[in-house]
Design a protein that fits this description.
Strand 2 and strand 3 form a beta hairpin. The chain starts with 29 loop residues before the first strand and ends in a 7-residue tail after the last strand. Helix 1 (147-159) runs antiparallel to helix 2. The chain has helices spanning 147-159, 167-176; strands at 30-33, 38-43, 52-58, 67-68, 73-80, 83-87, 110-112, 117-120, 126-129, 136-143, 180-181. Helices cover 12% and strands 28% of the residues. Strands 1-2-3-10-5-8 form a six-stranded antiparallel beta sheet, covered by helices on one side. Strands 7-6-9 form a three-stranded antiparallel beta sheet, with no helix packed on it. By secondary structure, it is of the alpha+beta class.
């Protein structure tokens, strides 16, 4: 039996024995929490060569802002609540209020409810916001790993450093992790 193409646990070595899969039960996973969102790491680059997976709680009033990645591909699956979502190139990239953007083909922002899937290829502007009074929850995958894992961890370090957020440090962090912010991030 060959192990070529199979994912082995990081410490298993190449013994020719197929490794065990990863099982993450509800409520399990490392949690990174900022004033704006709560992210639970479900699958990391230590367990997958394909993508990192997270469960993300989006509080009322949070708006990630429209942004774009040149190399990352993302998938969002709404589990609970409602989110306004964007996943298209607008006719005009205005610097504010992505919720009013429209594509050249007439696509507009959609109110995503549980069961909605959004796939974002590299280069596609995208955003999500929770305009409701109730929290929302989504499953989020990002490829390649571990870019988003490291981004969330380093963002938490910046936000926990005391005092008001260091916007220059956050901007440098976003640039380092392939995030071009097109409209402002907001939260209540």
């Amino acid at each position: 039996m060959t192990t070529e193409g199979l994912l082995l646990p990081p410490d298993s070595g190449d013994t020719g024995v197929v490794g065990e899969g990863l099982l993450v039960l509800p409520g399990e996973g490392r949690v990174v929490e900022t004033p704006a969102q709560r992210v639970t790491f479900k699958v990391t680059g230590a367990h997958s060569r394909v993508s990192s997976s997270f469960e993300v709680e989006v509080p009322p009033g949070f708006d990630v802002g429209a942004h774009v990645h040149t190399r990352s591909e993302e998938l969002f699956y709404v589990l609970e609540g409602e989110l306004d979502v964007l996943a298209f190139e607008p006719r005009i990239r205005t610097p504010d209020r992505w919720q009013r953007w429209e594509s050249r083909t007439g696509r507009q922002v959609v109110r995503a409810t549980p069961g909605t899937v959004i796939v974002v290829p590299p280069g596609c502007p995208h955003a999500f916001a929770n305009p409701t009074g109730a929290p929302a929850k989504m499953f989020f995958q990002s490829s390649p790993p571990p870019d988003h894992e490291r981004y969330f961890e380093e963002l938490l370090e910046i936000l926990n450093s005391g005092g008001p957020p260091d916007h220059a440090a956050i901007e440098a962090l976003r640039m380092r992790y392939d995030i071009e912010q097109l409209t402002p991030l907001r939260h209540r």
